[in-house]
Specification:
alpha+beta; 8-stranded antiparallel β-sheet; two-stranded antiparallel ribbon; 12 helices; 10 strands
Length: 350
């Protein structure tokens, strides 16, 4: 598989299927693991980093879950290709910024990705479309067992899995769910919800994860605590929290539709009109407007809609690296704004 092959491939997390996919974009579970007897990546020398890569790639080739997976050497990818993988949520921005002795292993369905030599030797993640946190956990649990049969992980009974960052020590698990919460934002309930989330030891990020702010009414919610909790307990905790948020968002949507339908119709149709007619548009504005179009389609306000998967894909296809991959050349910021508008006009002609 080549990087360009991913352009025509539907990422699992963007399919718009699965439970509550009108509110939940995707569910993800990530595990941090380190190899015993090797220094953590930020302490390892070049030779040690190369040894870790060789060991992990050798094991990955044997595992059924990773059959046909591709290992990308980040030092051989240019900045656009690396950003492209970040935009697809297949690796972190931090991983993309340093390329020596770094790999990312991606399965053909873009369900599983493994960052090698990021902050830890392995950052394994599984993503599913919709509210499917238990299915993501089921897959990664089996994958972790398969890896553990072949690799000796750094582990102490009293501490659990040892990680470069103390906050990940214990299970090494981060479970996260990406939600689309436009009604809670428009009814100004979102700050109350986010404050409650923080008090419960969960954290909130934006569409592109750590270091990003919420845009387009997208919020990625994940656990903060890994030590002292079992993996099933972490999954149960986030599952219970997300259920409550989904219910609050749906209630807010129903109330807005019942009490202020004209306002909602106006916001949705104005957003659709701009996307269908603009000739220059920024990435942030596109996400904000697409968010309203998606809400309008989910509520039946827009008569002729793209399917949910197509709308989800537009959030990613309109990002800078994806636009440049589509055009097969580097573009200036202004050129990207023009091409993004062109993409929207063409895709929303329905």
């Amino acid at each position: 598989m080549q990087i360009n092959d991913l352009l025509s491939h539907a990422s699992e997390w963007l399919k718009g299927t699965g439970p509550n996919s009108d509110v939940v974009i995707s569910s993800r579970v990530r595990l941090a693991r380190n190899l015993n007897k090797y220094p953590f990546p930020h302490w390892a020398g070049k030779v040690q980093g190369e040894q870790v890569i060789k060991v992990i790639e050798g094991v990955a080739a044997k595992i059924d879950y990773l059959k046909g997976a591709t290992s990308f050497d980040l030092s051989l990818l240019d900045a656009v290709d690396r950003q492209f993988l970040v935009e697809r949520h297949l690796m972190s921005l931090e991983h993309a910024q340093k390329t020596d002795n770094r790999r990312v292993i991606i399965d053909n369905d873009e369900i599983i990705s493994i960052m090698v030599n990021e902050e830890d030797h392995l950052r394994v993640q599984v993503m599913q479309s919709g509210f499917n946190i238990f299915e993501a956990w089921n897959i990664i649990n089996k994958l972790d067992d398969a890896l553990a049969k072949e690799l000796s992980f750094a582990f102490l009974p009293e501490w659990g899995y040892l990680t470069a960052c103390p906050t990940n020590t214990g299970t090494g698990m981060r479970a996260s769910v990406m939600l689309h919460l436009p009604a809670l934002v428009m009814t100004r309930q979102i700050n109350r919800v986010l404050a409650a989330i923080s008090k419960l030891s969960f954290t909130t990020r934006g569409l592109f994860g750590e270091g990003t702010q919420a845009t387009g009414n997208f919020f990625q919610i994940s656990n903060q605590v890994s030590l002292g909790l079992g993996e099933p307990e972490i999954i149960e905790n986030i599952n219970g929290l997300i259920k409550q948020i989904i219910e609050q968002e749906k209630q807010a949507r129903d109330a807005m539709f019942a009490k202020n339908k004209s306002f909602l119709e106006d916001r949705v149709n104005r957003s659709s009109g701009i996307l269908k007619s603009a000739y220059i548009i920024s990435s942030d504005e596109t996400i904000e407007l697409l968010s309203m179009v998606r809400l309008g389609c989910d509520l039946g306000i827009v008569n002729k809609c793209l399917d949910r998967r197509s709308i989800n894909e537009l959030f990613i296809m309109s990002q800078p690296a994806h636009l440049q991959k589509i055009e097969n050349k580097k573009l200036t910021s202004q050129e990207r704004d023009v091409k993004r508008a062109e993409l929207m006009r063409n895709k929303l002609k329905i």
